[in-house]
Amino acid sequence: MTATAQENAIYITDKAKAKVEALMAESGVSTADHFVRVGVAGGGCSGLSYKLDFDSELQPMDQEFNDKGIRIVCDLKSFLYLVNTELDFSDGLNGKGFHFINPNASRTCGCGESFAV
Fold first, then answer.
1. Which ranges constitute the DSSP H helices of 1-117?
2. Which domains does the chain possess?
3. Which of 27, 51, 67, 109 is 20 to 30 Å from the Cα of 19, by its Cα?
């Protein structure tokens, strides 16, 4: 996170930003019309699992953030679990894909797709 970043938000790393832009371009959607929707759902081996998708429609009570020019939207209930989380992307040997760096998680599963608070 940068020193000028707002507090109590959801952030994105440079690698994740580049991958989001590439995926949006491949899908034929624009960053002007669409955003990254992140959320939390019950399930997974640690109790809660992360959700990530592209969306174009805001819902009532959505929380909207902008980091590095990428709009990130989260429903209010999920935001309570994701406050100050950073979305990252890895293409290394230990697994390829998006990862949530969540300071609120007390434990995570081995695959990093679920967590507990």
1. 14-27, 76-82
2. 11-116 (2.60.300.12)
3. 109
Between CA 21 and CA 32 the distance in angstroms is 11
Residue 62's SS3 state is strand
Q: What does the block give as tokens for 44?
A: 């997974």
Q: Which single residue is written with the structure tokens 């950073």?
A: 86
Chain segment 9-53, per-residue pLDDT in tens: 999 999 999 999 999 999 988 888 899 999 998 876 667 888 999
Strands (E), 43-117: 48-55, 62-67, 70-75, 86-92, 95-101, 107-108, 114-116
